[in-house]
Design brief:
By secondary structure, the chain is mostly helical. It has one domain (26-89). It has helices at 2-5, 9-20, 49-55, 71-74, 76-89, and strands spanning 34-38, 60-64. A two-stranded parallel ribbon has the order 1-2.
Length: 90
């Protein structure tokens, strides 16, 4: 959000697109869903995961501790472990 506030044209365009294309019909998802969200994500703060978890029936949250917007770069091992755990449990 700092880039948007600073008037970064690319960030403003991306934010505009994201706001115009909000996720819809999440309640129709009928397969297991794991939401893996970085607790230090500054672009999409961790608190926003609650909206997705509430909208997707049966969705499970796996917080990615100390990871940001690009968790696979921050800690590939933690992301791999979250994926493997999710596929083991369903």
């Amino acid at each position: 959000m700092a880039r948007v506030a600073a008037g970064d044209p690319g960030a403003c365009i991306a934010l505009g697109w994201a706001l115009a294309h909000r996720a819809q019909r999440l309640d129709e998802i009928a397969c297991p869903v794991t939401i893996a969200w970085g607790t230090r994500d500054r672009l999409l703060p961790f608190r926003q995961q609650a909206r997705f978890q509430a909208a997707i029936p049966g969705a499970e949250l796996r917080p990615l501790r100390r990871l940001g917007q690009v968790p696979m770069s921050d800690d590939p091992r933690q992301v791999a472990e979250a994926i493997l755990e999710a596929t083991r449990t369903g």
